[in-house]
Amino acid sequence: MSENGAAPKQLADPLVGERSAFREIRFFVIVAAIVAAHVYGWYITRIDLVGLVTGLPNMQHIVAGLVQPDLVERVVETAAADVPFGLGCADRAPRTASPKLGDATAELEVSPGCGQPGDAVTVTGRGFPAGRDGQLFLVDPSGLSRRGPTFAVGPDGSFQQLFQAPDGSGAYTIRIQTQAPTGAWRPSETLSLSLSKILETLFLALMGTTASVLVTLPLSFLGARNIMHGSAVADAVYYGTRTVFNVLRSVEVMIIAVIMVVVVGIGPFAGVLAIVIHSIGALGKLYSEAIESIDPGPIEAITATGASRIQVIAYAVVPQVVPAFLSFTFYRWDINVRMSTVIGLVGGGGIGYILIQYINLLQWNQAATAIWLITIVVMALDFSSAYLRRKLI
Amino acid sequence: MLRIEHLTKIYPNGTKALDDVSLTVPDGEFLVIVGLSGSGKSTLLRSINRLIEPTSGKIFLDGIDVTAASPQQLRRIRLEIGMIFQQFNLVRRQSVLTNVLSGRLGYVATTPSLLRRFPAADLERARHNLSRVGILDKAQQRADTLSGGQQQRVAIARALMQEPKLMLADEPVASLDPATSHSVMRYLEEINREDGITVIANLHFLSLARRYATRVVALKAGRIVFDGPPTEIDETRFRAIYGEDAVEVEIR
Predict the structure, then answer these.
(1) How many of the other CB atoms lie within 10 Å of CB of A309?
(2) Is A302 in contact with B93 (Cβ distance < 8 A)?
(3) Under an 8 A CB cutoff, do A305 and B114 touch?
(4) Which of A355, A377, A376 lies closest to A366, judged by CA?
């Protein structure tokens, strides 16, 4: 090129390039824009690091619950004994009763035997199982029982407990219930419930995934460019299918679940439907792209043998996409299990349904049981799905 | 007999791959088409079984107009035309046997074929064709476990399942080493001589054309620039085909 007489005298250095000043300004403008976006973001999302630190102690109940999940309990033996008590009458003489407690007979005395609202009432007992936890109930004339104070039975089998007479009048009953954990440890009610709900979660995801796979399998071929081409109808089907996939995929599972709860009511079926609808969109895109990325050579070869279009798909396309399809399906099931654990928050069934109740009732130990189960199951699934996908590819 | 009349192919991007090509191939010929990459060899071959739709011109196979055939008729015509490819185009994850049997798809009913069920006669045919190309013992192996030369022989067996009159070979040895190339070419020569199947092969190397062809057609920029016996290609003609700077490389 140097032999060319028209060549400019000053050649730009190819390593530096031209208009570097403009590039530098552009670079700083871009950096400034990114910084400005994050400053505004800091303001609009009300990021408050001080609040994060001062608020941390609020987590103590949750953390305490998490380290002490409700997993096991012991068989509890309970026994109850009643003594009559009046409210709003004049006869203040103590009343006594000799209820049967198993083989033994206990003695109960309430003083005064009839009191006015606000009176301090003493309940004394003898012959109760030593060392047990006691709970006082006040049963009103209509049979409704109200929880009173708790106490411990002394080593000699006696106790004395005060309570304040409530508003009301009529013939009441004081019920003393003692209970003690005896016998073997067993899974707590929370654990059994959580286990049955996590099983529901797994099957919710399974049904949702399988149903979406069955729908998506044929549809994905309609959304693959290398299958659908060559005519206006094929183009229309291709774009139509892809649009449906895109719309379904862009709506979050939780939002669909809220709608499905309205349609079929609260429960796991609503969750299954939500997962099916979202997964059709997500899997459809993945499947279609897997079909589009296959080697066109075998298609050409099988077409050249005089095979029909469906035979070409069965012999040249399907064997090529099976590993990718399986891999995407396991991946999707994995995601769907994770989705199913939270879908219950909006009434879609599964373990999320009881988790949100535990949280709302501030039952942190019970919530911890559910959270730990979710963690274990999701991790196990994550691992096995990754393992299966590695095996397939 | 294959007759090609005034065949022209212009791709949507404006490339004129074939420019008024006329050619008659009598039965039993081993025709080798040579030319540089982009000279239109592949387009010509794929036009014959309409893997590529020609823009204009006509193709007749035994008097039947291939270019005017309906999709149904085209499938029947394709049964008569076997084809092998540079990249073998086997379904890699399937067994050798399934790949070979897929050459029979045009003959069998759709439903059983989708269930991978073939008549006993076709299994016998597959056994025969596999032993013919010397890889019967690999029938149950996955196709991608075979070497390149073996894969091309599977492809030949697949094409033979069609019991074709005509065999198209698009750069059949371009992905193979010289020794393997000859082994594959010899199988093509054998089916040409023993079964009387007409062979039309695209080849890069003139030396292979000289060794196997009964006739050579040279394409340059979509036009026929030579048509004759391989012995007639001398230095001058070689340069006319491959350009002034070309030097011939021998494949032995």
Answers:
(1) 11
(2) no
(3) no
(4) A355
pLDDT digits (tens, 9 = 90+) for A228-253: 887 889 999 999 999 999 999 999 99
Give the residue on A whose Cα is nearest the Cα of B156.
Answer: A301
Side-by-side strand order, sheet with A159-164:
A95-97, A107-111, A120-126, A159-164
Q: Per residue in A52-69, is it b (16+ CB within 10 Å) or e — as a string?
A: eeeeeeeeeeeeebbeeb
pLDDT tens-digit map of B115-158: 889 999 999 999 999 999 999 999 999 999 999 999 999 999 99
Task: Specify the pTM.
Answer: 0.71
Q: What pLDDT digit, counting tens, does each position of B146-162 carry?
A: 999 999 999 999 999 99
Chain A residue numbers with beta carbons less than 8 Å from the beta carbon of B98 are: 315
pLDDT digits (tens, 9 = 90+) for B39-94: 999 999 999 999 999 999 999 999 999 999 998 999 999 999 999 999 999 999 89
Average pLDDT, rounded, for chain A: 88
What the block records as the tokens of A94 is 């103590």
Q: Which parts of chain B fold into alpha helices (H)?
A: 41-48, 71-79, 96-101, 110-114, 120-132, 148-160, 178-194, 206-212, 235-242
Residues 6+ apart with CB under 8 A from A207: A272
Kindly provide the b/e burial profile for residues A17-40, where b requires at least 16 CB atoms within 10 angstroms of the residue's own CB: eeeeeeeeeeeeeeeeeeeeeeee
Instruction: Kindly identify which residue of chain B lies nearest to residue A297, measuring between CA atoms.
Output: B89
Best A305, A318, A393 residue to mutate vs chain B (most B CBs within 10 Å): A305
| Main-chain phi, psi angles of A214, to 5 degrees | -60, -40
ipTM exceeds 0.95, yes or no: no
**Are B110 and A301 a contacting pair at CB < 8 A?**
no
In this structure, the strands spanning B198-203 and B30-34 are: parallel
- Across the interface, whether the CB atoms of A300 and B49 are under 8 A apart is answered no
- Token readout for A252 is 């979050």
Q: Is B59 helix (H, G, I), strand (E, B) or coil?
A: strand
User: In the sheet that B56-61 helps form, which strands lie side by side, from edge to edge?
Assistant: B16-25, B2-10, B56-61, B64-65
Residue A216 CB neighbours (<10 A):
27
**Cβ–Cβ gap B89/A298 under 8 Å:** yes
In sequence order, what DSSP letters do the residues of A82-104 get, joined into one string?
Answer: EEEEEES-S--S-EEE--EETTE
Q: Is B69 on the interface with A (CB under 8 A)?
A: no
- Chain B positions touching A300 (Cβ under 8 A) are 51, 85, 89
Q: Please, which residues have CB within 8 angstroms of residue A300's CB and are 6 or more apart in sequence?
A: B51, B85, B89
Looking at this protein, which amino acid is placed at residue B226? F
DSSP state of A155: T
Read off the amino acid at residue B124: E
**pLDDT attached to residue B2:** 95
- Rounded to the nearest angstrom, the minimum Cα separation between B80 and chain A is 8
In chain B, which residues have their Cβ closer than 8 Å to the Cβ of A295? 89, 92
CB contact under 8 A, A307 and B102: yes
